[in-house]
Design brief:
The longest helix has 23 residues, at 283-305. This protein is α/β, with parallel strands linked by helices. The protein is built from 13 helices and 13 strands. It has a seven-stranded mixed β-sheet, sandwiched between helices. It has a four-stranded antiparallel β-sheet with strand order 9-10-13-12. α3 (46-54) crosses α10, α5 crosses α6 and α11 runs parallel beside α13 (375-394). The chain has two domains: 4-42 and 284-394, Aspartate Aminotransferase, domain 1 (Alpha-Beta Complex); 49-282, Aspartate Aminotransferase, domain 2 (3-Layer(aba) Sandwich), CATH 3.40.640. The chain binds pyridoxal-5'-phosphate. Pyridoxal-5'-phosphate binds next to α5.
Amino acid sequence: MISKRAIETPASPIRRLVPYSDEAEKRGIHVYHLNIGQPDIKTPKIWYEYIEKYKPEVVAYTHSQGLLELREAFADYYAKHNINVNPDEITITNGGSEAIMFALGVVCDPGDEVLTIEPFYANYLGFATYLSVKLVPVTAHPEDGYRLPSMEAFERALTPKTKAILFSNPSNPTGTVYTYEEVKRIIEFAKKHDLVIISDEVYREFTFDGRKHVSAFHFEGIEDRLIIVDSISKRYSACGARIGVLVTKNKEFSKGVLKFAQARLCPAETSQYGAIGLLKLGDEYTNSVRDEYQKRRDATYEAMKKIPGVVVHKPEGAFYLAAKLPVDNAEDFIIWMLKEFNINGKTTMASPLNGFYVTPGAGVSEIRIAYVLESEKLTEAVEILGEGINEYNKSK
Ligand SMILES: Cc1ncc(COP(=O)(O)O)c(C=O)c1O
């Protein structure tokens, strides 16, 4: 009775090993959770102040596109980042997740294809499968820091069914921040082949070592083929708020997205009030959070570099590090870490990167680490990982 799409939709590689960590924790093991991008930084107080300020007597439906005041706040935020959009071009969504689903849904019919750079944010595959859209990978490699693959590789992946290119910048899971030249290459390619660009910029504020984020919106002449996905989840440590946005200047897309939005009625009213508050926070807040993640990136990278046989590049943004481990199968290794290994009652959990690829067999020795703990804990967690690799390979 169950649909094919329900069977084919993959379980999240970020969450599917959780039963093993639950088991380990039941046995009293302290697990360093580096598998999920849940920041530990406190949600700013202004979130609560704004919810308190509005405090409606009835928690009501809002406009399906989202509260005008919140859309205006987002338009102001973008203006500060040299992105000129008006509130009509913004739809508030239930997290960036819903924005991805709406974007794929407004561009693709069942059977259409979307190019993406693999390894990619694993849930892209879940959404594509849900919509019967084929996600076609163009593979980046750990050996060159997961940089943008060659345009020839993109050309090879094209078919008459290709409708769009979807990518995250900064990248989850690799932490690569695409340069102006790289983003330009993607845009030129999309223009040449009449594709829509779905640019996922949820980590846009987290770029390190003085790098500036290059938004697809910084390029001219592509207004009609561009959709931006964005979110407050990571930027303001407000993952549970479930507030994201879809931005497009293409009026037809906006109309289609509005119909999808009407079908799900509206985003949570209370969260929209909180988000209006969060968007009042200026550069001082984002700079301090970015500096904290950069410190954590440094701690994680330095510790990873010390593990013999690991292929790792210094992440440039987001809060993830992807690495190739000297193990035959990273998923088996992580399960082993949770079942068999600990140092003084502590072990480390990462995400196997194979679930961030669709090419069979790709990423089998790779992991993703989310550096969302304090630096000292990250150093210890990675040292435990290194000891684990040593023991694991001895035990085989
Ligand atoms: C690249 C990327 N896009 C979108 C999302 C979705 O975030 P949310 O739905 O919490 O806004 C995430 C979450 O991890 C992500 O990493």
